[in-house]
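Appendix C: a fully annotated inverse folding record. The material below is reproduced so that readers can follow the format used throughout the book. The structure is listed first as tokens, followed by the designed sequence.
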């Protein structure tokens, strides 16, 4: 039987690679938005090689925005990997049950708090960079407008990224506010609410270390009564 942790890692990896495309198109807007070149739609090469200084500035900011996105993604994946390794999901327990359980494991509790805080701060900085990215691209849309495809592509690319950022902000904020570990990759936002079974087994003392109960205490000797 496939381990549950392996299944969770496969799901996270699959979702991540699907998101790489929308992040690339959503940050490199000066490349992928249809623009006007002598009445025709510019190719990617033409968009990249435009000599206009402002277009170059926007292109470099696009690259910086994509870099901050993938930095934030690496932190998000590291957080998710830690959660899969040390925590688990038990549908028979409430989502906030981890708060009481993890207090008995100070190291895990401290690590979870630091991961959540670092994830939140990185995400907020990434949102700030992306908002500037959108603003800078607005002038390119105005100056190099080709057709309605310019507007529709811009809106669709931006919306995909904004929805990702919005969902991640909810995960990060709720995780810090309620002292929990919400998953950013499950189809429904699930909360890791118990310790991982593999981790618990590793922390349990081996059987040979447990003092054997004397046999005299296990059974009572029956003494016949002689009359």
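Designed amino acids, in order:
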């Amino acid at each position: 039987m496939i381990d549950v942790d392996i299944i969770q890692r496969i799901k996270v990896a699959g979702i991540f690679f699907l998101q790489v495309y929308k992040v690339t198109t959503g940050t490199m807007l000066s490349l992928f938005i249809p623009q006007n070149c002598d009445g025709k739609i510019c190719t990617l090469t033409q968009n990249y090689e435009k000599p206009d200084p402002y277009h170059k500035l926007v292109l470099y900011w696009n690259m910086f925005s994509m870099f901050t996105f993938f930095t934030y993604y690496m932190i998000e994946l590291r957080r998710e990997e830690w959660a899969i390794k040390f925590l688990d999901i038990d549908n028979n327990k409430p989502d906030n049950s981890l708060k009481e359980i993890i207090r008995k494991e100070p190291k895990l509790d401290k690590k979870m708090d630091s991961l959540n805080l670092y994830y939140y701060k990185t995400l907020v900085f990434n949102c700030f960079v992306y908002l500037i990215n959108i603003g800078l691209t607005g002038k390119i849309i105005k100056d190099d407008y080709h057709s309605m495809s310019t507007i529709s592509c811009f809106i669709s690319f931006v919306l995909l990224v904004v929805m990702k950022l919005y969902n991640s902000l909810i995960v990060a904020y709720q995780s810090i506010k309620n002292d929990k570990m919400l998953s950013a990759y499950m189809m429904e936002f699930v909360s890791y609410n118990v310790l991982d079974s593999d981790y618990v087994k590793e922390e349990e003392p081996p059987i040979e270390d447990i003092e054997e109960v004397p046999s005299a205490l296990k059974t009572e000797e029956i003494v016949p009564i002689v009359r």
